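Checked the freezer inventory, then went back to the computational side. Two predictions to log before the end of the day. The first one is the construct we discussed on Monday; recording sequence and tokens without edits.
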Amino acid sequence: PMPICPVQENVLQRVLQLPVVSSTCETLQRKYSSTKESHPLMASVCEVYERGVQGAGALAMWGMEPVVRRLEPQFAVANNLACRGLDHLEEKIPALQYPVDK
């Protein structure tokens, strides 16, 4: 039988920790930061956008909290199924364990 994700484990956290995903995110973050540093106008636009996204995200989470609480058992089942699927993918696709440049 495939291992079940521990309760505290989150499939999104697992995906973000895969070397291929984390190295891609780091590369994108570096490019985003260097673009902001190189172009002052772009930096101000990006900062306005970032503040808007943070505000919208906080508002959405506040509004969704009661729904999330009610659906928590279903989320736990979906998370376990997704973790099992990720276990299978990691087993079948070893390249997921390497950074993008490899």
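The second is the one RB wanted added to the comparison set:
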Amino acid sequence: ERRSTWCCLAWTLLVATMNLLVFLMNLLLMFVIFTIVLLPTIVVVYFGFQCHSQVLHSAAHYCKSFLDDNSSSALIILGFVIMSPLIVVAMAIYCSLARRLRLFLCFQPYSRAVYKGVKWCRYEEGGLCSCARGWNTQVKAWV
């Protein structure tokens, strides 16, 4: 049975807020994973740009004693070269964690706001936010 107009609007705001919170939680998890995995690249590129005379040319001790323009350029190139495989590793870690925690099943459809009596997800039904009973963990996305 359909909800009234005002009730539907209130439930739509509730479902949209829940979906936004789940989205922000996924975004925060992705940001943390990518930051940790890409930290070596960030550090190497930072020091390369900081010590290069054409960019920032810092007066720090390590820039004067260890890094000249050629070694700074090498650091910048090395940082950008190792970035591609680390992005792949970070995305694999995030996707594996999201699948294991079933994070994408936490999104609620808007039919819950429009119709009365639609069953809400519960923790007891098999997972953090899973609505499906007996969810098959052997199902592959590329079937």
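For RB: Residues 122-128, 130-135 have pLDDT under 50 and may be disordered. The longest helix spans residues 5-37. Let me know if you want it refolded.
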